[in-house]
Amino acid sequence: MIKIQNSPQSFSDDEPDGFPEIASDRMHRLPPYLFKKINSEKNRMRRENIDIIDLGMGNPNDPTPQLIVDKLKQASEIKRNQRYSVSVGIDNLRREAAKFYARHFEVPLDQDSEIIATIGSKEAFSHLCLAVLGPGDTVMVPSPFFPIHIYGPVIAGAQVVSIPMGSSDADLLEHIDMMCTQLFPKPKVLILNFPHNPTAKTVEKEFFAEIVKLAHKHRFYVIHDFAYGLTTFDSYRAPSFLSIPGAKEIGVEIFTTSKAFNMAEWRLGFAVGNSTMLSLLGEIKGYYDYGIFQAIQIAGIIALRECDAEMKKQADIYALRRDVLHAGLCNLGFPVKKPLAGMFLWAKLPDQFQTMGSLEFSMRCLKDAHVVVTPGIGFGDGGEGYVRIALVENEDRLKQALRQIKQVFFKE
Ligand SMILES: Cc1ncc(COP(=O)(O)O)c(C=O)c1O
Hints:
Structural class: alpha/beta
Radius of gyration: 22 Å
Number of strands: 13
CATH superfamily of the largest domain: Type I PLP-dependent aspartate aminotransferase-like (Major domain)
Number of domains: 2
CATH class of the largest domain: Alpha Beta
Low-confidence stretches: none
Strand order of the largest sheet: 1-5-4-6-7-8-9-3
Shape: globular
Bound molecules: pyridoxal-5'-phosphate
CATH topology of the largest domain: Aspartate Aminotransferase, domain 2
Mean pLDDT: 95
Distance between the termini: 39 Å
Largest sheet: 8 strands, mixed
Number of helices: 14
Helix content: 40-55%
CATH architecture of the largest domain: 3-Layer(aba) Sandwich
């Protein structure tokens, strides 16, 4: 049930005679890239002009709102925006982020000590790991997991303990409590991500309140990846971890414009919350980067200030796609829950495909049905037996994908 992830991998030694091995020790702690096989097959098929319906990556396929693009164009013409910016983000952007958090999540934030603008959430997370974790530290991560939640700590030199997500909030809370009681030295950090990628699991405030209690009881910190915090459906509203009293004393939340505003390649996110953790992040970022292109930061102000309606419209688009895909998969016999947030369906393979495994199923799906889905095993052992399907094509293409899957796997 409990797994310590720390296994070295062997790298080919391609160095010239007498030279030391070029790969650092750290590289040996990273596993081979699991999606490589699927990606290279996809690229090969595309080169042969085969129409592939790619539902693999959570890469938004709709455009950034025009208002934001226009602001970028305008701001990029201005000479002072072409110089180095500020590593932690310009004042006006951080001020707007504070207003945004207050408006959407009822969380008051001090723009100077409790907000840092980052180059997307992956950068925020990775550098935060480097700033607060190192050899001898242990991190708890629920499994299945979004890969960087494991490899961020691993690259930082920490030990990772994966905890089964369990079938309920109570299960997960119990596993965390048990882990803290059993492990010595005690875990230092818990990584959370709700709405969750890949499982689409969502939580309510009460769950976070229990986490805050556990954190204070066992003395661990929390990093909450809130990438899908505003991609929510129906009447569900995702709570911010920081909305719980006491959370700011022990936690940082990471938010991104990538999903909410279709700004994936703009690379603009925020780390917010505990001021001590954030000052460490700010310090390390000061060594590594000069901040985000200032024109993007200025366009980001428009996103946070003026695009609530566009954000809602985009979430509604995902909700419609979710309905189409959910209905289609249920018809085919996939046991799949209707998610309340995020960009994915997390579908258990029907019984007859369980022995095939998720990687083999996904490869066949690509080769024979020309549809890319992500094998659950890519998100850790806890993901085996599932595939993750991203809502990044329009409804017609999703229906087409379902027809092609049906033809290949469910022929009478
Ligand atoms: C849970 C989660 N965190 C972070 C990211 C990356 O976000 P960003 O573009 O802000 O780096 C993703 C992207 O798929 C994600 O699913």
